[in-house]
């Protein structure tokens, strides 16, 4: 009797899965019949629509797709489509699938318009899709750009473009920045743009680091950070110009004179950092005039590139620092300073989701007036919006949970040119747990920040917003290398 009971219990899971599978198939067939959309499974994903019935023309433009995370593993299109249709007409829904038949917990929904995609984010981000189950929704950017590092610095743009077209298909353009010290040389990296995300993905797969060389050099290949879309209304108010490709010797006073040559006193202030600068104007009209006049101008022998600066840290929780990005985010207390060179030699951040809402609290300094009352304080009195790094955020979290502060243990591995690669192991004694990221860094501060971000992520303390970038899988930095196979001694 006991034996029969044991055999029956072993069959129950398979029977349950079979019943669930049958229910899912019936529900999907009913959905197809009701909507007229097709459902096709390929390459580990199941695609609903794309295009929908009666669609004539190209797919919707960039910005129409959203990423959906934290989907219950036993939820499928028959439940998802009705929810996401509330925001607007769906062009296609791609649900990532496991071999077992369960979904992988995330999907991509492309709408027929950008307005519908924005409504989906507003309506469905942190939406309770089942009792106690909340999904996260954020914009999904179709990345068509690769970061190529460790290329010879004597190669010109046309040479790099020609070589990339030889070894990969679908190359549209190559973006190369000259060295800040010698404008006849590049910075040792380039951004390669492809005609589609698929072409870029195929190229990335082909150019596997360690197995592929250009001009006899082993190269580093990864996704470039997609340029964040800033809404048109915000950009219409921008009166700051972003200027790159400056000589290191160019002064702020020179820039002030050059950028106000058409109207005395037009420039409010200038902030130069190494070979790029932000020019703040008193009114937007003057900024636009200067943009047209100065883009491509020669300053101290260098041909400069001028664009409108994109405000950083607005509604996207971005932090100071750049990944492999080509940006013009500006900051002076209200906004966050960002670099345009992928962080080469300057402390690039990592691929973990941004954790700090840098735009929530302005970075300001105030004079300590004599007689101002000050008293001892602790992390308990600090607001999360006042934290500007993952290291401080991790300490804040440990303090809030009455844990001892995290301990950092430094390890290293051999790197190029005798420079060691660094990685921190984080130990939280109170919970007897340790955490280590899967990347090695060239800079000590980067290694510690990366270790803290990895720990926060591993602890599961980040809000639903932070997983949006991680599951889309985008960026590593120039300063960090995979450490999966490194053995620590």
TrEMBL record:
Main location per the UniProt record: cytoplasm
Biological-process GO terms, alphabetical: meiotic cell cycle; oogenesis; spermatogenesis
One of the Pfam families matching this protein, by short name: DND1_DSRM
GO molecular function list: RNA binding
Keyword Transmembrane helix appears in the UniProt entry: no
CDD domains linked: RRM2_RBM46 (cd12492)
Organism domain of life: Eukaryota
Keywords annotated in UniProt: Cytoplasm, Differentiation, Meiosis, Oogenesis, Repeat, RNA-binding, Spermatogenesis
Location in the cell: Cytoplasm
GO CC annotations on file: cytoplasm
Domain RRM, residue spans: 64-142, 144-226, 239-311
PANTHER family according to UniProt: HETEROGENEOUS NUCLEAR RIBONUCLEOPROTEIN
Name of the molecule in the record: Probable RNA-binding protein 46
Organism in which the protein naturally occurs: Myripristis murdjan (pinecone soldierfish)
